[in-house]
Design brief:
The complex is a heterodimer. Chain A is of the alpha/beta class. Chain A folds into 2 domains: 12-258 and 457-474, Aldehyde Dehydrogenase, Chain A, domain 1 (3-Layer(aba) Sandwich); 263-442, 3-Layer(aba) Sandwich (Aldehyde Dehydrogenase, Chain A, domain 2). Chain A is 38% helix and 16% strand. Chain A contains 14 helices and 18 strands. Chain A has helices at residues 57-75, 80-96, 98-109, 113-134, 162-175, 190-201, 216-223, 237-247, 272-284, 301-316, 336-351, 383-386, 402-409, 425-434, and strands at residues 20-21, 23-25, 28-30, 37-41, 48-53, 152-156, 179-183, 209-211, 230-234, 253-257, 263-266, 296-300, 355-357, 373-376, 393-399, 417-421, 439-442, 461-462. In chain A, strands 13-14-15-12-11-16-17 form a 7-stranded mixed β-sheet, with helices on both faces. Chain A has a 6-stranded mixed β-sheet with strand order 8-7-6-9-10-18, with helices on both faces. Chain B is α/β, with parallel strands linked by helices. Chain B has one domain (76-291, 305-319): Aldehyde Dehydrogenase, Chain A, domain 1, CATH 3.40.605.10. Chain B has 10 helices and 10 strands. In chain B, the strands form 3 sheets. Chain B has a 5-stranded parallel β-sheet with strand order 7-6-5-8-9, with helices on both faces. In chain B, α2 (76-95) crosses α9. The longest helix of chain B has 21 residues, at 131-151. The chains are: A alpha/beta, B alpha/beta. Chain A binds chain B through residues 126, 142, 237, 240-242, 244-245, 248-249, 251, 256, 258, 413, 415, 428, 432, 435, 437-444, 447, 449, 451-455, 457-462, 464, 467-469, 472, and chain B through 158-159, 161, 163-167, 169, 171, 173, 178, 258, 269-270, 273-274, 276-280, 282, 285, 308, 312-319.
Chain lengths: 476, 322
């Protein structure tokens, strides 16, 4: 039976877009000294949304100076309890403005409204609420009797979860008495600019949070600024390496949350329907723009023939289209550049001998779109099994024994996430113990919570975000 | 190579006397009644004591400049072999029970205690310590092994735990060893400093490739003999003597090294940290600052600060339901 869906678009009217957004420095908005702007597009239809300022070195200087001043004169001296109350306030305002933030995030990023509404924005509020409560309890965090803030944190975040990554960076930094200069991604700066307004609305002291928009050069100037005491970066492993190199010898503290090539292991005794759901959400959640995506399916050979048709049938039911439609499962690819990269690597999969499959799926004429794709017959040597695609593309491999599953799962320079599907508890624990990954989801996938530490092994970076562990990165 | 230096001085006699292994009183002819058996100082790799594959050695002198012995001058190939041995040993060592690792570390303390005399004499000769200071350093080194023996089955509870997520999930974080750690041992603290950097690495289930103090490497080789007789599986600690500047760059950039302890890397610390960036190798920057000698390592309770840099946090989720 085929159900037809009527369009169910979320209203855009809740968002009041400005024509231009300037830099948020020292509590106010001011243009970049270079006077340059970039335009951020709606990736679902390629229409311009707004112009945002491009911060240059002079802007980085004044933002870092403002952050330093605020840290030394106000924020670092304030009692933890008072700092916490500012963060509680921010959490509440995020909740109050949640629909606006969700719609704006979907417009700027291309991700479905049901994800921004039900995942991103609620987690943002939860993250601030969680770390707010830590601000006056740092002596109990197991990091010494009187842990001290590091000073000014330079933070650079990616475009896949723009506001959520902001929250992961800003909330623990502020709770611990640091001040921040944050650079959102060039293709998704808008919710960060609304966050700047929220800081004003919360009457956060000027300079505690500074937001500089721009592209890679702005980010580089920020992380290399001698006035930063701490660098926190989420993004590609390539950029992470460069940052680690530039930080060497400066004494700056560094945490990196980088790429992944997560394995999702399905054993022959798994609850098949649940595993199908988990594998689908593992790779197609957020169009696969997820560093911890389950982009390699490892299915036990004895159930592969049964599993794959069920998986494809489920994928065929996914609805791709308007991100603001409440029924949409798969939204737009975030940018033309990312779309090109996904196409390029996926094509190599076919060229290297994998079999490519996508459901019948009409792609909208404008905007950046990529149909959900499954590659079967993938070997470990294929690029699609080794490199992060960061798109809705699942590579399928098989295994015979649990040892082989673990061996294949760990056969990657990355180590961010992994999944295990089995009904046998001892096998789940045996597998989880051997997986070299920072997050193991068993009989579930892509779950996040502010209390749960997140971060990778090996070339997926170092340091943890979330939970008590997340405080360590910001205290000395 | 110019590493080998012939010394005309009969300096060895002093070292041998210091180690309690000197010959008996010499007859008038200058030939001892019994010739002492000297020790060949070799590397410790994969549980065996090979010479450097390069066939090289370098002279080691006492604090007053007398020749003590020749130490192996490890090469790049030796460093790679040591990494291979450490990687091979990692699976077994990291999956030992915490209780068992604690017992092995305690055994190291027992064996070291039994050789106090040898180590105290060595410390006195190599570092010019008074006998009382040398005794104090050896005692602290023995106690340091006991200290970390006690940590093996406690750090996971201290550093990990249950996470109260907002949903029907069991969620638990636990620390795990990062893998192979290249340890640049302190230059000026060849016994207690050395112990203080090795013990936390292996207590947490990592395996180590240790570059001993360049100028005072003999205690490290003696310690390797203690480790080799303490039920520590071969390959868990691998020890190289030689030049930090020669083998260090290969360890720092080695893709199969997961972390660096730069304690004794001196001026090369920044270069090594930069090299480590290529494969996102974890780095513990030099601390305490060099120059303090063994005394800088005397704190009897260093806490978790030398363990956490070599631990990863793994978080496991599972739904709760019927």
């Amino acid at each position: 039976m085929i159900f037809e869906y009527a369009p169910a678009p979320e209203s855009r009217s809740v968002v009041a877009l400005r024509e231009t957004y300037d830099l948020f420095v020292d509590g106010g908005f001011s243009p970049a000294e270079g006077g340059e702007y970039l335009t951020t597009l709606n990736p679902a239809d390629e229409t311009p949304l707004a112009r945002v300022a491009v911060a240059g070195p002079a802007d980085v200087d004044r933002a870092v100076a403002a952050a330093r001043r605020a840290q030394e004169t106000v924020w670092g001296r304030m009692s933890g309890a008072e700092r916490g109350k500012y963060l509680f306030r921010i959490a509440r305002i995020v909740q109050e403005r949640s629909r606006e933030l969700a719609v704006l995030e979907s417009l700027d990023n291309g991700k479905p409204i049901k994800e921004t509404r039900d995942v991103d924005v609620p987690l943002v509020a939860a993250h601030f609420f969680y770390y707010a409560g830590w601000a006056d309890k740092l002596a109990h965090a197991g990091l010494g009797p009187d842990p001290k803030p590091l000073g000014v944190a330079a933070q650079v975040i990616p475009w896949n979860f723009p506001l959520l990554m902001l929250a992961w960076k800003v909330a623990p930094a502020l709770a611990t008495g640091n001040t921040v200069v944050l650079k959102p991604a060039e293709t998704t700066p808008l919710t960060a600019m609304v966050f700047a307004q929220i800081c004003q609305e919360a009457e956060l002291p000027p300079g505690v949070v500074n937001i500089l928009t721009g592209a890679g050069e702005t980010g580089q100037a920020l992380v290399e600024h001698p006035g930063a005491d701490k660098v926190a970066f989420t993004g590609s492993t390539g950029v992470g390496r460069r940052i680690a190199r530039s930080v060497a010898g400066t004494g700056k503290r560094l945490t990196l949350e980088l790429g992944g090539k997560g394995a999702n292991i399905v054993y022959d005794d798994a609850a098949i329907d649940q595993a199908v759901e988990g594998v689908v959400s593992g790779i197609f959640f957020n169009q696969g723009h997820v560093c911890c995506a389950g982009s390699r399916l490892l299915v036990q050979e004895s159930v592969a023939e049964e599993f794959l048709p069920l998986l494809k049938a489920r994928i065929s039911k996914l609805r791709l289209g308007d991100p603001l439609d409440k029924n949409t499962d798969i939204g737009a690819i975030n940018s033309a550049a990312q779309l090109e990269r996904i196409r390029e690597i996926t094509d190599t999969g076919e060229a290297e001998g994998a079999e490519r499959w996508s459901p019948a799926c009409d792609l909208p004429e404008n905007g950046y779109w990529f149909a959900p794709t499954v590659l079967t017959g993938v070997s470990q040597a294929h690029r699609v099994a080794r490199e992060e695609i960061f798109g809705p593309v699942l590579s399928v491999l098989t295994f015979r024994t649990p040892e082989e599953a673990v061996e294949k799962a760990n056969n990657t320079p990355y180590g961010l996430s992994a999944g295990v599907w089995t009904e046998k508890g001892s096998r789940m624990l045996w597998t989880a113990e051997r997986l070299r990954a920072g997050v193991v989801w068993s009989n579930t996938f892509n779950k996040f919570d502010p209390t749960s530490p997140f971060g990778g092994y090996k070339e997926s970076g170092y340091g943890r975000e979330g939970g008590r562990h997340g405080l360590e990165a910001y205290l000395g | 190579m110019a590493e080998r230096r012939s010394t005309g001085k009969a300096g060895r006699g002093a070292a041998e006397a210091a180690e309690g292994r000197g010959g008996s009183a010499a007859p008038a002819s200058g030939v001892p009644a019994r010739l002492a058996v000297r020790k060949t100082y070799k590397l410790y790799v994969g549980g065996a004591f090979p010479r450097s594959e390069s066939g090289r050695s370098y002279p080691v002198t006492s604090s007053s400049g007398e020749h003590l012995a020749n130490a192996s001058l490890a090469s790049r190939k030796d460093a790679r072999d040591a990494v291979t041995a450490a990687r091979k040993a990692f699976g077994g060592w990291s999956s030992r029970t915490a209780y068992n690792r604690g017992q092995v570390l305690y055994r190291v303390a027992e064996v070291l205690e039994g050789r106090r005399e040898q180590f105290a004499a060595q410390a006195a000769a190599a570092q010019g310590l008074s006998r009382a200071d040398a005794d104090r350093v050896v005692s602290a080194a023995v106690d340091r092994w006991v200290y970390y023996a006690g940590w093996t089955d406690k750090f996971a509870q201290v550093l990990g735990g249950a996470n109260p997520v907002a949903g029907p999930f069991y969620n638990h974080s636990a620390p795990e060893p990062t893998g192979v750690v290249a340890v640049f041992a302190p230059q000026d603290a060849p016994l207690l400093g050395l112990t203080s950097v090795i013990a936390p690495v292996v207590a947490t289930g990592n395996t180590a490739v240790v570059v001993a103090s360049e100028t005072a490497p003999l205690a490290a080789v003696d310690l390797a003999e203690v480790l080799a007789t303490s039920d520590l599986p071969g390959g868990v600690v691998n020890l190289l003597t030689g030049r930090v500047g020669e083998i260090g760059p290969h360890l720092a950039s080695h893709a199969d090294v997961n972390a660096l302890d730069l304690a004794g890397s001196g001026e090369l610390a920044v270069e090594f940290e930069r090299a480590a960036a290529t494969t996102l190798t974890r780095v513990l920057r030099p601390r305490p600052a060099p120059g303090g000698g063994e005394d800088a390592w005397l704190d009897p309770d260093p806490g978790t600060s030398r363990m956490t840099p070599f631990l990863e946090t793994k978080t496991v989720w599972h739904p709760v339901g019927v």
